[in-house]
Write a structure and sequence with these properties.
27% of the residues lie in helices and 27% in strands. The protein is α/β, with parallel strands linked by helices. It folds into two domains: 167 residues, Quinone Oxidoreductase, Chain A, domain 1 (Alpha-Beta Complex); 134 residues, NAD(P)-binding Rossmann-like Domain (Rossmann fold, 3-Layer(aba) Sandwich). The strands form four sheets. Strands 3, 4, 5, 8, 9, 16 and 17 form a seven-stranded mixed β-sheet that branches. Strands 12-11-10-13-14-15 form a six-stranded parallel β-sheet, sandwiched between helices.
């Protein structure tokens, strides 16, 4: 089969790969659409020691199943493969399973024509759901999961909060769109890339700005969501979050500082780390995407899987405006 393979830092190769083989309690998924995630870009640059080349990356997958209980069904995948018996799995927190593995990291992922995955990872979606929209379920669920956690500790309902989202990629934009859908009336989004800012502005979620060119209200936001996760974005979040506010950290760019422990303590800031999602989050996000809760999703750009090497290079160079690029193996 054809696949897009991470072969070395800053190198993707479109080539023939061996056919995957489904093991016991696994299914074969024929991939219809697969998104490019920020973590895939991180790996592409050689910054993720967990992803060792040569490796088929990709975990934002929609496809249809051949064989087994889900034969013929359109599904999205939970890329996390969990053990089901550790303390976290037994208490429903599958996303932090002590023994978790992941497609596109510890085993081949979705930048291919087919992928084999355990049946427990299959999440059915409506057969009439646009597969490109369905491929957005993973980043949508990431934002949804984080907002669920933030809502539990926020002093006021999120709809009443003044919110700042840092990062205009798919997770950031989908988080802002979900906040709007939930009734939040004051949302700002910080993004450095001018092409992406113009694209995000068209969605009408609120002010979209370059945080290096325009000021951010200091201690002015009840909720700050960092969808980048770098030292500079954490520092921005710390300056922006209001006393008694919530700082939700989702991004995983680096681990090099940026937190202000003094402000966290003196201003009673609640800092939450949010990692991925549960299967329930994925199902809920897919339902919201299908219902139109996130809007028309016109900001998604599609390309064929064969263009992968050029597409990754253009993303690295900041030449693509779209917050999300979805690759089509059949395109």
């Amino acid at each position: 089969m054809k696949a897009l393979v991470y072969t070395a830092p800053n190198e993707m190769t479109f080539r023939d790969e061996p056919e995957p083989r489904a093991g016991e309690a696994e299914s074969m998924v024929h991939i219809e659409a697969v998104g490019i995630c920020g973590s895939d870009m991180h790996a592409y640059q050689g910054h993720d020691p967990r992803r060792v080349p040569p490796l088929v990356l990709g975990h934002e997958v929609c496809g249809h199943v051949s064989g087994g209980a889900f034969d013929g069904r359109r599904v999205i995948l939970n890329p996390l493969i969990t053990c089901g018996h550790c303390h976290y799995c037994r208490t429903g927190r599958f996303n932090i399973c002590s023994n978790r593995t992941m497609i596109g990291m510890t085993r081949p992922g979705g930048y291919a024509e087919r992928v084999a995955i355990p049946d427990q990872c299959l999440v059915p979606v409506p057969d009439d759901m646009n597969p490109v929209h369905a491929a957005l379920t993973e980043p949508a669920a990431t934002g949804l999961h984080g907002l669920v956690l933030a809502g539990r500790v926020s002093a006021r309902p999120l709809s009443e909060c003044r919110a700042l989202v840092i990062g205009g990629g798919s997770v950031g934009l989908l988080t802002a769109l979900l906040l709007r859908h939930q009734g939040c009336q004051s949302i700002e989004l910080a993004e450095r890339n001018i092409l992406r800012r113009r694209c995000v502005e068209e969605e009408g979620t609120g002010r979209v700005y370059d945080p290096l060119e325009e000021s951010t209200d200091e201690s002015g936001f009840d909720l700050v969501v960092d969808c980048v996760g770098g030292e500079k974005t954490r520092a921005l979040a710390m300056r922006a979050v209001a006393p008694g506010g919530v700082f939700l950290h989702i991004g995983l760019m680096d681990n090099d500082g940026g937190l202000d422990a003094r402000k966290i303590t003196l201003a009673e800031i609640t800092v939450i780390g949010a990692y991925t999602y549960t299967t329930a989050d994925l199902a809920a996000a897919a339902k919201k995407l299908h219902s139109g809760a996130y809007g028309a999703l016109r900001w998604v750009e599609t390309r064929s899987l064969a263009t992968g090497p050029r597409t990754f290079a253009e993303l690295l160079e900041g030449k693509i405006a779209a917050p999300k690029v979805v690759l089509l193996p059949g395109g």
